[in-house]
């Protein structure tokens, strides 16, 4: 292992990026690699495996286990690279002009690499307050993996004091983000030859009515500006994102699926908005479909759900984050994170703070600046000093 901190971070990030952990694949080789790295320091984590046996989270405690500690949390999965125009292999770390390129460098293997690189310092400090590493899976498809891990944490006799979730914020202290609720509507129509279209039930046309209603409500939401100016988009948002339907030009389509989402400012607003749309469709659209043919209708399923984050600006974890980051300001963001689940599932107050910019996340030639990673390492270094005080 390279001795200097920047070299340790580079080496660890290169190792992590090399694992193709797109969410539809296993992350076990990466978890095993982290376990092996920690074992070299005499540290053993707690693995929480999913029902398929192909995914796992890792909960690690460094320091005394009989006291409440502080959490550094990151996810291991990354978004796909298919269809993106990369200038090099996305799963091989490349450094150019102080920037480290590779899938997940910003979102968010860079943060995980920094935390792992600081493990020797954590051990050397003889911590009085423990530091926990929470490493999850499948964040990108609905914060899936953190939920069972937090379920186990919530059962523990001693609950952590707070958590820092290392999503890319350019090391700004984020105290709030919107919640999100995603729904899939499947319209069941009746296929007929298009020459006798009135005898069929056109699933796409009924789906179009739902889409128009979603758009109408989105405009209404945008007109209601929140007094909370900390959000860059100061209102809840609603949109249709995916539509599939139809088989051929000369067939009345008998199926159409519509995926839509709401990102709400209020803790429960996302679900309230989508629930209202489902109720409207069941009252206005489905009866008309069934009138044409009784077996037609609409099926709804939840495809994603996480609550909003709203940590009080004067909470102890926020004050500590500002002290460690060397800044006095705080902000809120539109994108979602696992932070709200730390708060809602395990009652752990949380802030979001990590290296890199969200503008780089999910993009081709994703990168994080080495200066950002070093700034993050300084944050962790000050956290270690804070936790070393008895």
Automatic annotation (TrEMBL):
Entries under Pfam families matching the protein: M20_dimer (PF07687), Peptidase_M20 (PF01546)
Names of the cofactor(s): Zn(2+)
CDD domains linked to this entry: M20_ArgE
Record domain Peptidase M20 dimerisation: where: 175-287
Entry's localization field: Cytoplasm
Cellular component GO terms held in the UniProt record: cytoplasm
InterPro entries tied to this protein: AcOrn-deacetyl (IPR010169), ArgE/DapE_CS (IPR001261), Bact_exopeptidase_dim_dom (IPR036264), Peptidase_M20 (IPR002933), Peptidase_M20_dimer (IPR011650), Peptidase_M20A (IPR050072)
GO annotation (BP), single: L-arginine biosynthetic process
GO-annotated molecular function: acetylornithine deacetylase activity; metal ion binding
Keyword annotations from UniProtKB, A to Z: Amino-acid biosynthesis, Arginine biosynthesis, Cobalt, Cytoplasm, Hydrolase, Metal-binding, Zinc
Family the entry assigns: Belongs to the peptidase M20A family. ArgE subfamily.
Protein name: Acetylornithine deacetylase
């Amino acid at each position: 292992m390279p001795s200097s901190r920047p070299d340790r971070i580079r080496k660890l990030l290169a190792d992590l990026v090399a694992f193709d952990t797109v969410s539809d694949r296993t992350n076990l080789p990466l978890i095993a690699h982290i376990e092996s790295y920690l074992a070299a320091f005499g540290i053993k984590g707690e693995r929480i495996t999913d029902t398929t046996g192909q995914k796992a989270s890792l909960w690690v405690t460094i320091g005394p286990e009989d006291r409440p500690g502080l959490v550094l949390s990151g996810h291991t999965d990354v978004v796909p690279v298919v269809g993106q125009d990369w200038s090099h292999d996305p799963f091989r770390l490349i450094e150019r002009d102080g920037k480290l390129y590779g899938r997940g460098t910003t979102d968010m293997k860079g943060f995980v690499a920094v935390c792992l690189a600081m493990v020797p310092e954590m051990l050397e400090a003889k911590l009085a307050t423990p530091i926990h590493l929470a490493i999850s899976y499948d964040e990108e498809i609905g914060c899936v993996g953190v939920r069972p891990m937090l379920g186990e944490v919530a059962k523990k006799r001693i609950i952590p004091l707070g958590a820092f979730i290392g999503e890319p914020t350019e090391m700004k202290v984020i105290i709030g983000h919107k919640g999100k609720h995603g729904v899939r509507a499947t319209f069941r129509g009746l296929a007929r030859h298009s020459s006798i279209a009135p005898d069929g039930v056109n699933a796409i046309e009924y789906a179009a009515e739902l889409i128009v209603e979603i758009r109408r409500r989105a405009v209404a939401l945008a007109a209601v500006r929140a007094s909370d100016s900390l959000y860059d988009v100061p209102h809840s948002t609603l949109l249709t994102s995916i539509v599939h339907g139809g088989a051929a030009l000369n067939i009345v389509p008998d199926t159409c699926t519509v995926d839509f989402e709401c990102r709400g400012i209020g803790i429960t607003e996302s679900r309230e908005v989508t629930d209202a749309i489902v109720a409207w469709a069941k009252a206005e659209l489905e009866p008309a479909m069934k009138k044409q043919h009784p077996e037609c209708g609409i099926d709804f399923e939840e495809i994603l759900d996480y609550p909003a984050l709203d940590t009080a600006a004067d909470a102890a974890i926020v004050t500590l984050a500002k002290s460690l980051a060397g800044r006095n300001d705080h902000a809120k963001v539109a994108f979602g994170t696992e932070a709200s689940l730390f708060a809602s599932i395990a009652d752990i107050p949380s802030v979001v703070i990590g290296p890199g910019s969200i503008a780089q996340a999910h993009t081709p030639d994703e990168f994080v600046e080495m200066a950002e990673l070093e700034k993050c390492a300084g944050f962790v270094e000050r956290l270690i000093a804070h936790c070393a005080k008895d």
